[in-house]
Every structure is written in structure tokens, then in C-alpha cells.
Amino acid sequence: MLNAPLASTNSFSLVRAIVKICQRDWIVDIIWVARSGNQAANALAKNADFSALDTIHLHSPLEFLWTLLSHDVSSSSSDPA
Fold first, then answer.
1. What sign for the dihedral angle of Cα 74, 75, 76, 79?
2. Is this model's pTM higher than 0.85 or not?
3. How many CA atoms, within 13 angstroms, populate the side-chain half-sphere of residue 39?
4. Three-state SS across the chain?
5. Which one, of 80, 71, 62, lies nearest residue 37 by Cα?
């Protein structure tokens, strides 16, 4: 979807937002990561409070993320990339 000729007019606002970011004056690499390879991000998304749109800055990982972060680090270090 992101590379389609009319991506900037896509019906999905997320696609349009990503295309707009990619058009800025910087280098952008978009890399697909399977959900199983980024369990911490997946857990955060599943536990998000979408009723509050404020930005939250975490100075250390939430307690439930430690095991998932360890798994993500070990699985990414074994990737041949």
C-alpha cells in the first residue's frame, strides 16, 4: 500500500500519514517486523488506553514488559540481518 502510485490518497489515514512522513527531507527505511519478533510493542498496543490520547513517557519498562523485551532482544540477535 505504501508504494502504490496513489498511496497519498489511500482511504486509510495511517497509510496517508506514513506516506507524508516518507516524503520529508530525510532517509526513511520501512522494515516489516513480525508481531512475534516484537512482542513488547505488540503487548503495549494491546494494553493501550485509546480513550486518553496524551503522550506518555516511560523512563523504564513497565513490569510486564521485562520478559517480552528479553525475548525480543534474544530473537533479534539471532536474526541473520
1. positive
2. no
3. 14
4. CCCCCCHHHCCCHHHHHHHHHHCCCCCCCCCCCCHHHCHHHHHHHHCCCCCCCCCCCCCCCCHHHHHHHHHHHHHHHCCCC
5. 71
Q: Which three cell numbers stand for residue 26?
A: 530525510
Q: Please give the single-letter amino acid code of residue 3.
A: N
Give me the tens of pLDDT residue by residue for the chain, a chain 81 residues long: 888 889 999 999 999 999 998 889 888 888 888 877 888 888 888 888 778 777 778 888 888 888 898 888 887 665 554
CA distance 80 to 68: 20
